Prior knowledge:
This protein is mainly beta. Helices cover 9% and strands 35% of the residues. It contains 18 helices and 73 strands. The longest helix is centred in the middle third of the chain and has 13 residues, at 414-426. The chain is globular and about 100 Å long.
Amino acid sequence: xxxxxxxxxxxxxxxxxxxxxxSKKDTNHSNNNNQKLFTKIKKEESNIxxxxxxxxxxxxxxxxxxxxxxxxxxxxxxxxxxGLEDVYFISNFGPNKLYKNTGNFEFKDITVFSKxxxxxxxxxxxTMLxxxxxGWLDIYVSKAGSMYNENARRNLLFVNQKDGTxxxxxxxxxxxxxxxxxxxxSLDYDKDGDLDLYLVNHRYDFKNNNRISAAIQNNIEEIxxxxxxxxxxxxxxxxxxxxxxxxxxxxxxxxxGDFNNDGWDDVYVSNDYLEPDAMxxNQKDGTxxxxxxxxVNHISFNSMGSDYADLNNDGFPDLLTLDMAxxxxxxxKENMASMSTSNFMAMVDIxxxxxxxxxxxxxxxxxxxxxxxxxxxxxxxxxxxxxPLIADFDNDGHKDVFISNGVVKDYTNQDFRNExxxxxxxxxxxxxxxxxxxxxxxxxxxxxxxxxxxxTFTKVIKEWGLExxxxxxxxxxADFDNDGxxxxxxxxxxxxxxxxxxxxxNNYIQLKLIGPENNTLGIGTSIYVKTNNExxxxxxxxxxGYESSVSNIINFGLGTxxxxxxxxxxxxxxxxxxxxxxxxxxxxxxxxxxxxKESINSYTYFTKNKKILASDLNINFxxxxxxxxxxxxxxxxxxxxxxxxxxxxxxxxxxxxxxxFFVGNASGAxxxxxxxxxxxxxxxxxxxxxxxxxxxxxxxxxxxxxDQDGDKDLYVVSAGYDLPKNSSLLQxxxxxxxxxxxxxxxxxxxxxxxxSGKSVISGDYDGDGDLDLxxxxxxLPGNYPLPSKSYLLKNENGKFLDVTNSCPNLxxxxxxSEAIFTDYDNDNxxxxxxxxxxxxxxxxxxxxxxxxxxxxxxxxxxxxxxFSINAADYDGDGDTDYVLGNLGKNNKFHPSKEKPLFIxxxxxxxxxxLDVAMSKINHGKLVPVRGKExxxxxxxxxxxxxxxxKEFASFDMNEIYGExxxxxxxxxxxxxxESIYIENLGEGNFSLKHLPNEAQxxxxxSLISGDFNEDNKLDIMGVGAIYDAEVETIRYDSxxxxxxxxxxxxxxxxxxxxxPFIDSDSKDLEKIIINGKNYYLVxxxxxxxxxxxx
Length: 1094
């Protein structure tokens, strides 16, 4: 839980001018005439005739300078202090334009008079700032291109002369940087009170943009590295080297903010091409350290624009980075090449990040870590995207997202690239115009998303009136007409600009900061606005999105709230300004000179979770996965099958009253049995036995009393996707306890079971007084998604008989992940419930020792990728309810009842291996999930059948694979990936509801129940991850575990303070009592055990 406490008892003097005192009403963001939220202002109305025209010549074109299509920025600000926001547009080839706002959305071109002309070189970004702290906005223009003219590349600084004119003074101030600059950012990195500058630059050696070379990377060039300039008052000096910031990348954007919550400005840099993004964390000694690998689990591949602001009103800003993944199936299949598995892993192995072609929403966890939820949130795919702007456009109190979109030429179009490659092979000479004419071009709508307030967003392009196809780049927001909402302005390529008037009628409050003498704009100031509903947070930085800067007037939407309880301003030097009981719909000027030095309890990370180092308990176990390339067997499987992990089993194995545990391991690594000592430490036992058994893959285990001698024996499930059929290493194992915790392997108590399993449970299902077993088979080795055989084993005097055939449909029902014995119908016998991948939850009713599948009314169309079950009476009505762990919502598939996900399996190319093809429904057609390149690699016959990417993109599954081929293929489908709660209604009837979104950020591989907050109500704890998704699928690493607090009525609420926070490839979770207290063990692939308590 995050706390924000106020203990100030004074009200500061303020100056305020009220624009409107009338309350606005919330009518779903439209007026009484059903006007849409935005109205486009045409050039004839605004008098803005500016166009950014791209001119390609032999000297500069996309072939020798691919960043030619990167577009240009726009900056907004009140340059003449008349209370109206003015606009400066960048033209890549000039001239740039300055427009004065004369009111009523009318503007006047004052470029010549203001002396802000710029005809030289190739301009990119622009930001407004107060370089000399005189209270008047200046303009900084970034330069790139001009590869053979350093002077044309020097950045410009137009200093406001307070008389409507500007003077170019970049050299005087020491900031006429000659690098290839995309944009500049203001920050106070050294906390000396004035604003320094961070320049995002890019490389010019585009021929190396698909190569990783240590020699190239180590050859740092001044003009391509990002730069840090320290403010010395009257000028700036370059301190890049001293700060440890020299780099070599293709920087496209930056975001300034406090990424580790220590109160110091950090910098996130979005890098294009192979070079990964960098998160430069301020070390508080004048230096920075790139900690991206530590703080985010994956990143965008071709990172473009970024923004950093609080999207979920928890008091901590979140990071949005953009890429170029199309939402359209056709465009994705025409423009996106396949990612090579070997190349991807090679980049990871040398220290690059897990990078994917997708927008990323990194949700701030307030402890220095981020949880990426772009796919869950609905923000992942917005095509060739440039500027993300996070702001509350509908003034409902939740920040929305605008994304500019489009590229003037689709030069990643795969058919174009192949055609050009063939022309080059032939040595055919071509005119530049002919090459350009070969490249497709398609104007696209910009995107806008409404914040739903639950980590998800709804696309509202049409609903909000922003259907306006263009090639858009830089974008900014400002309240141009002073009516209390944020209008949008966009710099387009080869077209008129986009200017969109906001028609919101919700309430608002606006703040203009008057900062201290060395930071007049108050950059870096934190503002908290508290109403009865919640507290909103913003931190003032102007340079946002892409190549652009926004207004310094801070806007908070209030919805229908008619009273603001408190506004708290925390200045960069930690002085405080506070206002109470404020009426909405006005602009307030807050002056730093009235602030006071007071201590406050700010938003901080708070958790009741207490981490325990395993080594402190003398536990040194580490899971070690064996290395096997599943994709060499089946290229198109959705994730590796050989790395499904192991489990933990808890029992008192030596009769001393203390709980001990067994944890399995992967093939080639030793399992471990730890016995608890009276002091709470543990001792490793039976080491030689586990060393001899290390050749097995331990998929699961269970302690139970095989022979009714009063001690706990051990059953271990074997698995191995990488093993040949009928391998002896697939045989499950039984270890007999001598009563003192010493185990020996039994060789004659189990039937032959050459199956790759995943689940084992024990119970006296036949009522004869001993414990029987069910073993759930998972995937047939090397043949995903075919199921391995499952077994029902009857205990006959300590020896197990295979009685599976007595139960129809049980043997090969599916790829079982977990099974439980449960009395779902309260008839005092053990029924069987199973879940698995591409399966629906299934209950087999026990009828005198014979299991028959029942029809679970209310759970129709619930096939999913189920991984876990927990059974308990969550609603207190006396029967057993269930919580089921699924893949979650944070994935690219999003199957539903109407649009299921399909998989076909068959040896399509007759080469002796089982091929798979996943498909989805797109505009009523069944289309492939994967693209032409990888599909053809698995099935080479497609190369002859389908010649172009465009053709592949237009075909459905029947046209690609052949209707007859698909009809006799092995077929499965999934309708739901959300983890769910199932309420038992009795008599075979059930109802389901999705768990909260905080439980949907990744797969739930393991579940337990308990009263974690000690309120006598059952709660849920879940963990899970899948790090080994195929490389075109974002790995599932965003579930750090969750606790959902129950109310004994079947309702659950996410609790941040009880979150396990397991940042690893977690597979199993178990409770263990140590020294009389509840602890929790988590086993993860390739990691030490995690241990925590509350």
